[in-house]
Automatic annotation (TrEMBL):
Cell membrane is among the record's keywords: yes
Membrane topology designation: Multi-pass membrane protein
Species whose genome carries this gene: Microbacterium mcarthurae
Primary subcellular site in the record, as a coarse category: membrane
Places the protein is found: Cell membrane
Homology family: Belongs to the cytochrome ubiquinol oxidase subunit 2 family.
Signal peptide: none
Keywords carried by this UniProt record: Cell membrane, Electron transport, Heme, Iron, Membrane, Metal-binding, Transmembrane, Transmembrane helix, Transport
Gene name in the database record: cydB
The keyword Heme belongs to this UniProt entry's keyword annotation: yes
Listed name of the protein: Cytochrome d ubiquinol oxidase subunit II
InterPro entries: Cyt-d_oxidase_su2
PANTHER family cross-referenced by the UniProt entry: CYTOCHROME BD-I UBIQUINOL OXIDASE SUBUNIT 2, CYTOCHROME BD2 SUBUNIT II
Residues passing through the membrane, by range: 6-24, 74-98, 119-140, 160-182, 194-219, 225-246, 253-275, 303-326
Length: 343
């Protein structure tokens, strides 16, 4: 296999990993106003991702670095054309990270409430804008003969792009609520199960429309991997419904696992629909960025392949070990005991 094609799928794998892992982080953050009835409950919710949120977030750094090294033309066009949305995502991630670190530094409820709002906004903005960005990448954007984006911010706010944003927002929210139910006890756990019943239904409806639209678009564009798009979209739909049913039966582990599979297959379907392009042009076919005309040299890709072969398994093993160490539920009694000791 040509190394450029291999790295297209590696980049896809890295973004899929990011959306699965930081996706439930976003969902946990967005769930604070719905599940955090008091400060103890809010601390319980935040502590479910306390040991892992920053590790999850590093996936986007690795994905961005891999994109820069393997497809410099794609990286240049994407980060210049989508500058404002990506800047908003960056600022939101900074605000969220600062809030996790500073929230507990003072006992003032006003202080904590302010950072809680920053966590919610810092989680919702990326969840929405990543969906808008990827939907537009798949659909295509106006690129000129020099592969430069010639649209505006409002060009990205088209019906398909906005629907993609709504789907990722709802999907990450529901995925995060499943995680809260899996990792907590008491009132927060039962409230999370109830919330997921409603958010899960909304997600199923929005995702069904988006996946059907994606399939029709891929068919109209005569995508070479159309059968893969259809198959992956079908799996995503089934696992999404399955996760909602599992939640109804109080099987949080199954619900969360199926929710993760939904994200994996849905994002994979987008990459299948995109192939062999990396950024289609809506102006003329010759202006599109493809795997072949956007990739680095074979020498660069060879070095990157050896680095990925050595270090990627190490990173995956370390992350798996981290989740194993922090696998226990975050109980309300433990938070209350810690609060008493602090006083």
């Amino acid at each position: 296999m040509d190394l450029a094609y291999l790295w297209f799928w590696i980049v896809g794998f890295l973004f899929i990993g990011y959306f699965v892992l930081d996706g439930f982080d976003f969902g946990v953050g967005m769930s604070l106003p719905f599940l955090g009835k008091d400060d103890i409950a809010r601390r319980q919710i935040i502590n479910t991702i306390g040991p892992v949120w920053d590790l999850n977030e590093t996936w986007v750094i690795v994905a961005g670095a891999a994109l820069f090294a393997s497809f410099p033309e794609w990286y240049a066009t994407l980060f210049s054309g989508f500058y404002l949305p990506l800047l908003l995502i960056l600022l939101a991630l900074i605000a969220r990270g600062v809030s996790f670190e500073y929230r507990h530094q003072r006992e003032s409820l006003k202080w904590k409430r302010g950072f809680d709002r920053m966590i919610v906004v810092g989680s919702a903005v990326p969840a929405l804008l990543w969906g808008v960005a990827f939907a537009n990448i798949v659909q295509g954007v106006p690129l000129d003969a020099d592969h430069e984006y010639v649209g505006t911010l409002f060009t990205l706010l088209n019906p398909y792009g906005l629907l993609g944003g709504v789907v990722t927002l709802l999907l990450f929210f529901t995925h995060g609520v499943y995680f809260v139910a899996l990792k907590t006890d008491g009132q927060v756990r039962s409230d999370a199960r109830a919330l997921a019943k409603t958010s899960g239904l909304l997600t199923i409806v929005a995702a069904a429309v988006f996946l059907a639209w994606t399939i029709l678009q891929a068919a109209n564009n005569e995508a070479p991997l159309l059968l893969g798009v259809v198959a992956l979209s079908g799996i995503a739909a089934l696992t999404l419904i399955g996760s909602w049913v599992a939640n109804l039966r109080d099987r949080e582990g199954t619900a969360f696992t199926l929710g993760a599979v939904t994200i994996v297959t849905a994002v994979a379907a987008l990459f299948f629909a995109l192939f062999p392009n990396v950024m289609p042009s809506t102006l003329e076919a010759g202006s599109s960025l493809t795997i072949e005309n956007a990739s680095s040299t074979d020498y660069t890709l060879t070095i990157m392949s050896w680095a990925a072969l050595i270090f990627l398994p190490v990173v995956l093993a370390y992350q798996g070990w981290t989740y194993w160490v922090f696998r226990k539920r975050v109980t309300r009694a433990r938070i209350e005991k810690a609060a008493l000791v602090a006083h």
